[in-house]
Amino acid sequence: MTSEAVLGFPSVTVRVLLGKRLCSDHDANIRVPPTANQAMQIGVAERIIGRWKSGGDECQMKPIIAMVLVAVSVTGCLTDSERLASPAGSDPLARPAAKYDGSWYKTNEWSGEYPDGFTMARNITTKIRGSLDVDAPKSISCVLRKGATYHPWNKKRVVSDRLEFASFTKIETYELDASFTIELRRQSNGDDTTIQFKKGDQWLYLVGLVEGTFLISFNETIYIAGQELYEKSTKVDSPVNGDESTYDEWLKLRCANGAVGWILFNEIKDSPDFTVPNTGGYGKASDL
Fold first, then answer.
1. What CA–CA distance (Å, rounded) separates 192 from 142?
2. What is the extent of the structural domain holding 265?
3. What is the pTM of this model?
4. 285 lies in some domain
């Protein structure tokens, strides 16, 4: 059975695959905002699928995390020097700095079930960077207006200010404490796969998702995993020392004065000028 639900705003189609143990013959095409991050896509999918519940339906929806495959690429990638080099004619603002080498995992979203964001507490003029580089000078003067909400869920501002969200997670190596078998889900196609881990096998932590799930890389394949794998593994090395960040969130925006550049969220999140985002329920955010 195939069903489609349309949410009534500009959208791209995503496919939700219900776990085979729940409902092997059901799938759905659900439309969500093209700017929605993975957490929002999953949340929207779960709520819509929940509408299909019926008392006698053996495929009755339970609170699960649906695997969302987006029709346009919003997935992450392992960064390396070759991929970071901008091709001729590409936007130099989108080129990450050398800091984000192959030891980082990049996604075009801010992760988490409730992603970060901010609402401006007052009109300000601040300095922002022209590139994804923490060492780049803050040379661009950017005017931000009171009440403006910068958040993946604020569809209007995402469009009007051409917002782009990017994040970099420091890759961590984990080693299995004992041999065991587990079912993981391939990121590429949503298929469940049984993996027989052996003691000493190593896997890479790439980025957190929602409700305790995360992406891993094992034998050059990316999977969605959960706490069971984490609890049976030990971190091999520490990626950084001291207070150095292991997760950076960047926002590219067009300022009120027309300037374009990047804001590093870690640097502004504690400023009184940048307050908690104005959200109105899951998946909704707006200007004040």
1. 46
2. 77-169+244-275
3. 0.66
4. no
